[in-house]
């Protein structure tokens, strides 16, 4: 099996990011709350954004209201990312 890693810090693959997106993650922060990708060195955040694209999001209404789609872990990740 050929694995393409998006996040080397936590060993997260493209396939995993796409699966989390299918499950409702719409933003890099929501991906981070699901699998930690993007929470260490941050070099993968742009790649995660590219994988998420600008398509429709089943939970976009929650994101637009400022509510995390994955709570309460998303709140912890938000605080971590804001502190960095």
TrEMBL record:
<dbReference type="Pfam" id="PF04324">
    <property type="entry name" value="Fer2_BFD"/>
</dbReference>
<protein>
    <recommendedName>
        <fullName>Bacterioferritin-associated ferredoxin</fullName>
    </recommendedName>
</protein>
<dbReference type="InterPro" id="IPR041854">
    <property type="entry name" value="BFD-like_2Fe2S-bd_dom_sf"/>
</dbReference>
<feature type="domain" description="BFD-like [2Fe-2S]-binding">
    <location>
        <begin position="5"/>
        <end position="53"/>
    </location>
</feature>
<comment type="similarity">
    <text>Belongs to the Bfd family.</text>
</comment>
<keyword id="KW-0408">Iron</keyword>
<keyword id="KW-0001">2Fe-2S</keyword>
<keyword id="KW-0813">Transport</keyword>
<keyword id="KW-0249">Electron transport</keyword>
<keyword id="KW-0479">Metal-binding</keyword>
<dbReference type="InterPro" id="IPR052371">
    <property type="entry name" value="BFD-associated_ferredoxin"/>
</dbReference>
<keyword id="KW-0411">Iron-sulfur</keyword>
<dbReference type="InterPro" id="IPR007419">
    <property type="entry name" value="BFD-like_2Fe2S-bd_dom"/>
</dbReference>
